[in-house]
Amino acid sequence: MFHKRKLMLITLLVFFFSVSYSQISIVEVKAVYKSKTDGRIIPESEFQTYRGRHIFHKYIKGKNGAQDTIIITPPKVNLNKTNKETLLSLVGQSLKPFKVTDLYGNTYDSNKLKGKTIVMNFWFVACPPCIQEIPELNKLAESYNSNVVFIAFAKDTEVLLGKFLSKTRFEYNIIPNAGNISKLYNIYAYPTHIVIDKHGQISYTSVGLNKNSLEQLETEITNAL
């Protein structure tokens, strides 16, 4: 009887926490929501769009005044057909102007890159497929001369990128805090690759990682030269 009551109590507690955390906001609990899927910190505005539809996993109490953390699995996002079509529709269009600075203070001005092929990678450090493809991207970057410029636009801060790059080599020219460039190109999923030919035209776009994606990327870079 005691064991049955104990089991019932545990079941009720699990139910209470799963329901409670699906109905409250960061503001109310002063917590950070973190995705169990890719480790990404989920902003309040995004969380509110699927509140009540996530899976609650763990509540971590913050120490020494730090914010609490709630680990959740966001609902599976279906890639919107409109988003796919928008990215594909970029092919044939002119490069969208940008002027950015990489982690080492080097500036990349699209107007001054005319005549070169530009390979753009959109990524972030908590994106598993983004990390998985880095070794192959390094080989790719090392196999072309200076007529091809490889630029990686990261969502992350310089601090996060510094920690990541201290353990992982990435041969692209890495731009921190590049969310504005992602918006400029309507990036909706990661990793995303865009190739700009030497005439300044977008010749190729791709999203995600599959067994043929990097081979296809290399082919498209060669075609764009």
Automatic annotation (TrEMBL):
Domain Thioredoxin, chain residue ranges per copy: 89-225
UniProt cross-references to Gene3D superfamilies, sorted A to Z: Glutaredoxin
This protein's UniProt keywords: Isomerase
Transmembrane segments: none
Molecular function as annotated in GO: isomerase activity; oxidoreductase activity
Protein name (database record): Thiol-disulfide isomerase/thioredoxin
